[in-house]
Structure formats: C-alpha cells, structure tokens
Amino acid sequence: MKKNLLKIFLIGLITGICNGIFGSGGGTILVPAMVMFLDIKENKAHATAISVILPLSVISSYFYISHQLIDWNLVLKVTLGSVIGGYAGSRILNRFSDHTLRRIFGISMLIAAVRMVFW
C-alpha cells in the first residue's frame, strides 16, 4: 500500500511540476503513468487525468494571473471551443478500445513533439 501511495505522490508531483512549467502534464504525464505504473485502464486514466487537471489548472492559473501572463481576450475565445470539444470528447471516450485510445493518444503526442521541435 505504501509503495502505491509513493508512486501516486511522485506521479502527481511530476505532473504538477510539468503543468506549472509547460502548461501541460495532465494528459502527457498522468495518462501514461497511470496506465504503466498503476495498472489503470486507458479510458479510466484519461477520465481521471481530466479530473486532476482542474485543481492543477486553478493553482497554475493563480500564479500566471498574478504575473499578468494571461491574454484574457484569447482565453474567452478559446474557452468556448474547448468546452464544446471537452463535452464531445467525454461523450465518445468509452467508444474506443484501450488499444485504439492508446494509439490515438500516442499519435497526438508524436505530432505535438514534432511540432515543438520543428516549428
């Protein structure tokens, strides 16, 4: 039990640090870590990561706001599409097998990595 708690704490710590630095971590760190180290099913890992992102985002946003780093006009515009997309994604999540979901996630991570390196 203590070993699992330590894993969970370390996964959370690394996720929080990545979220604070990169604005990312919920999906990129949490999902693979929960699947590989905690034996959580893929779709449950995705759903859990989304739930963890809220408190992470609140804490990180507090610091970004206090340093005046947020473009509020952009936030308002992107939020509308994000809310609609989040609703649609959560409705279709369980329609994918773990294998398919893992492939979609992996491909999206590869595309993001290539874009970050070359653009």
Automatic annotation (TrEMBL):
It comes from the Bacteria. It is a multi-pass membrane protein. It holds the Pfam family TauE. The chain crosses the membrane at residues 6-38, 45-64, 70-88, 100-118. It is found in: Cell membrane; Membrane. One of its GO terms (cellular component) is plasma membrane. Keywords: Cell membrane, Membrane, Transmembrane, Transmembrane helix. The keyword Cell membrane applies. Belongs to the 4-toluene sulfonate uptake permease (TSUP) (TC 2.A.102) family. This is Probable membrane transporter protein. It comes from Fonticella tunisiensis.
